[in-house]
Amino acid sequence: GMYRYYYNKLEAEGRYPKIISNSLGWNSESILEVVNKADKKGVLWFLASGNRWPEEVRELEIKSKAMLVGSFSPLGLTTFGTQLHNDMLILAPANSELLAIDGHGKRTLFGGTSGATPVVAATMASIASLWPKIDRANTIKLLKNTAFYSAENKIGNLKAPRLLNAYKAFKVAQRILSYCRSGDNVKSCFDQSLDKPSFHFFDLDLITC
């Protein structure tokens, strides 16, 4: 597939992307080796979890090191078209209301999990600019610990994925990194600091749902 081709092409040149935003589905199990190999190089691979809706998430996607992304609507509800799974990383705002430009240069509305995935990838691109060595484990913990509760969470489904809070994720990462830079092990310091409430509270009011 396209993602496998371009990743292998970059690898052959000795170059590795930090982030891959994967909105299209996978057609072959051969992608699994590529994704897991990329993870070992510190690549953050985000995968839209909706390309085969209403089917369940495939074992191929669950076994991979790609992080599954779903979509939520302005009401805070999971969007139809999202293939929910307990291993899903996060829901990001998309629905069918993202303004985009199509291949003919015309404005159009875009969304679903294919629209949500680049929102998460862009969030992590901003955070990676602060700390290029951030890895998959740190990413998962950061985004989950800073997320909004979804409507499903609030009615008792605590296993349902939460809603991306890109602003808070960036500000918390920024605050933790300003503290952890003085230590020898940034990764360990970052991970431990995410569990401390003092890094999550700010004097200004944050935008909430």
Could you walk me through the main structural features you see in this protein, from its secondary elements to its overall organization?
Helix 1 packs across helix 2, helix 4 runs parallel beside helix 7 and helix 7 packs across helix 8. Strands 1-2-3-4 form a four-stranded parallel beta sheet, with helices on both faces. The protein has a two-stranded antiparallel sheet with strand order 5-6. With 209 residues, it is α/β, with parallel strands linked by helices. The mean pLDDT is 90. Helix content is 40%, strand content 13%. It is built from eight helices and six strands, in the order H-E-H-E-H-E-E-E-E-H-H-H-H-H. The radius of gyration is 17 Å and the shape is globular.
How do the SSEs run, as a string of H and E? HEHEHEEEEHHHHH
Mean pLDDT: 90
* Shape designation: globular
Low-pLDDT parts are: none
Count every beta strand, where a strand is a DSSP E run of 2 or more residues: 6
Q: State which percent range the strand residues make up.
A: 5-15%
User: Helix count?
Assistant: 8
